[in-house]
UniProtKB/TrEMBL annotation:
Signal sequence segment: 1-21
Keyword terms of this UniProt record: Signal
Protein's name in the database: DUF3862 domain-containing protein
Keyword Signal part of the UniProt annotation: yes
Length: 95
């Protein structure tokens, strides 16, 4: 039977906790929410094109007829304003 010393068990537990915390922090951020994709969003682009590039938005003011949508978290996001389902403004934070 395999037996670990108490100090070795504590070390393994600490490493496992650190790994899980790292995965939780990085796993919650959408890899599509990045500076490159933000730069590819052009004024006049259709909502469907932005949706195809970034996936489903995290938040929209109205999912049937979106006027403002955000992809990502409050701290790290791409925010897009639409008129007639076309991009009229875009902003980013934390990219």
């Amino acid at each position: 039977m395999f037996h670990l010393s108490r100090s070795r068990s504590v070390q393994l537990l600490m490493v496992a906790t650190l790994c899980m915390a790292t995965i939780a922090i990085t796993g919650c951020s959408d890899p599509k929410v990045n500076r490159t994709n933000f730069n590819h969003i052009d004024i006049g682009m259709r909502y469907a094109e932005v949706h195809h590039m970034l996936g489903a938005p995290t938040w929209c003011d109205d999912y049937d007829r979106p006027k403002e949508c955000r992809w990502g978290t409050e701290e790290r996001h791409i925010y897009v304003v639409f008129v007639a389902r076309r991009v009229v403004d875009k902003q980013s934070k934390g990219l």
